[in-house]
Design a protein that fits this description.
about 475 residues; alpha/beta; Rossmann fold; pyruvate-formate lyase- activating enzyme; OB fold (Dihydrolipoamide Acetyltransferase, E2P); 3 domains; five-stranded mixed barrel; 21 strands; binds S-adenosyl-L-homocysteine; binds iron/sulfur cluster; binds FE3-S4 cluster; iron; metal-binding; tRNA-2-methylthio-N(6)-dimethylallyladenosine(37) synthase activity
């Protein structure tokens, strides 16, 4: 790739390396003098793809832009700065992003002062950065997941020095506390508890795009949760690629069960967490979840595959048997718990029989929800280098069968709600009918229901009258 002075380009091989360097925690964020109020009279728009980690990063981007004096805009059209926070998890996620950047070309043609920035996980991939630099001249700012805090100076160079800025570090840096945040939710909030991932599942690009696992200090997390409670937030979700591994990277090792218990004690009405990898799921964690009413009885327990050989090739470090034992323990200990999962079909050379093993687990666990994907080869990962003898048509058929299987079972499970009264945290009225509201149960079921004079953030009792595969219908009582 053509290197220009001042550019820092990503390197997935570098990103794969893990160091034992201690990670500094920095809690001062200052905006360079020249950049202060650079956004006065200007607007921004952020487009976010991918997981909740990205959603939360976009809240930091927005917080920084607010501090620079920019005003948020509802649409990309008419904005002075557009930032696209991208996801690299599967190829189709990347294609969507490239499509959107392509669409923004028109806006750039109409306004040459427009700054289009791309950040997030795709920016950590050298191949994609090359594509962006050669085929998308409208992109004038490229930065990665490790230097969001440098946005003021990077944006300043773009805006006032006319430079194209490309600054993507392959290695994680410090953990920043106290970065500004503009929360998009008024009663639900995300709380990072850790960054990065060290699991290196062989199909997954996240350990390369997000760097090594770095936990936040428990005291900082608890402080943030307390502030959210004081501000009236009703629900928080603790975020990490692997929340159960929380603290394992710290000297004074803390664990997730302890953190979760301390968070629950602060007393926010609803506490959630994601994602919990079966690998580090401790019994103590299950007990804590069962003990506190404000820890929601909902567990996302990614299966990926129900076949031991495939699991081994994926580097998941559990077997079908140990997964099911964990599942049983969860179901038998936490009252009224709902379980969801992630599954990949068509991992290289997955046989029909191996796929059937996945279906066996699905039939046993009767998941409340499932996110199902066809394997996508990700640059730099071991699985992308495996020879694959399975054609796409077979993979598509498997995905359809898997979806039919879990959908039918989820519908059955939802039907069991009919006649019951459940507590729903109201998201707001529907766009079509102001007397129809939606919200979620403690078990993360979407409920559409009739009601009156309700506000987003209210708790309301709803009697369930009907059940669908992905939602419940009811009436406020
Ligand atoms: N940290 C989480 C997963 C984050 S990625 C965990 O370990 O559970 C979300 C999901 O995307 C994964 O659970 C997996 O099912 C899917 N996924 C990740 N990489 C993929 C790939 N290369 N192809 C298809 N699906 C993938
Ligand atoms: Fe990816 Fe595995 Fe880490 Fe999840 S645990 S982010 S699937 S490497
Ligand atoms: Fe996507 Fe990066 Fe999240 S690849 S799923 S945005 S960690």
């Amino acid at each position: 790739m053509k290197q220009k002075p001042g550019w820092v380009l990503p390197d997935l091989k570098e990103a794969q390396k893990r160091t034992t360097n201690t990670i500094d925690r920095i809690d001062t964020f200052t905006i360079p003098e020249v950049a202060r109020m650079m956004g006065r009279g200007k607007t921004y728009f952020i487009s976010t793809y991918g997981c909740q980690a990205n959603e939360r990063d976009s809240e930091t981007l927005a917080g920084i832009l607010d501090e620079l004096g920019f005003t948020p805009n509802e649409t990309a059209e008419g904005s002075d700065v557009i930032i696209i926070n991208t996801c690299a998890i599967r190829q189709n996620a990347e294609e969507k992003v490239l499509g959107e950047i392509g669409n923004f070309k028109r806006l750039y043609r109409e306004n040459k002062d427009l700054i289009i920035g791309v950040c997030g996980c795709m920016a950590q991939e050298e191949g994609l950065v090359e594509t962006l630099l050669t085929k998308y001249p409208q992109v004038r700012l490229l930065f990665g997941t490790h230097n969001i805090q440098e946005l003021p100076s990077m944006l300043y160079s773009c805006m006032f020095e006319g430079k194209k800025v490309v600054k993507i570090y392959s290695k994680e840096g410090e953990v920043y506390e106290n970065l500004p945040v503009h929360r998009f939710g008024t009663f639900k909030a995300w709380v990072n508890i850790m960054y990065g991932c060290d699991k290196f599942c062989t199909y997954c690009i996240v350990p390369y795009t997000r760097g090594k696992q770095r936990s936040r200090k428990m005291s900082e997390i608890l402080k943030e949760v307390q502030e959210l409670k004081d501000e009236g937030y009703k629900e928080i979700t603790l975020l990490g690629q692997n929340v159960n591994a929380y603290g394992k990277d710290m000297d004074n090792e803390q664990d997730f069960a302890t953190l979760l218990e301390e968070v629950a004690k602060i007393g926010i009405p609803r506490v959630r967490f994601t994602t919990s990898h079966p690998w580090d799921f401790s019994e103590q964690m299950i007990d804590v979840i069962a003990k506190y009413d404000n820890i929601m009885p909902f567990i996302h327990l990614p299966l990926q595959s129900g076949d031991d050989d495939v699991l081994k090739l994926m580097g998941r470090r559990y077997t079908k048997e140990s997964y099911l034992a964990l599942y049983d323990k969860i179901i038998n200990t936490i009252p009224n718990v709902a379980v969801s999962t992630d599954i990949i079909v068509g991992f290289p050379n997955e046989t029909d029989e191996q796929f059937e093993h996945t279906l066996d687990v699905v039939r046993y666990c009767k998941y409340d929800n499932a996110f199902t994907f066809i394997f996508s080869a990700r640059p730099g990962t071991p699985a992308s280098r495996m020879h694959d003898s399975i054609d796409m048509e077979t993979k598509r058929k498997r995905l359809a069968r898997l979806n039919k299987t879990w959908n039918d079972l989820a519908l059955e499970k939802n039907k069991a709600y009919i006649g019951r009264t459940v507590t729903v945290l109201v998201d707001g009225p529907s766009k079509k009918d102001e007397n129809v509201y939606s919200g979620y149960t403690d078990t993360q079921k979407l409920v559409n229901f009739k009601g009156e004079n309700l506000q987003a953030g209210d708790f309301v009792e709803v009697k369930i009258l009907d059940a669908k595969t992905f939602s419940l219908d009811g009436v406020a009582v």
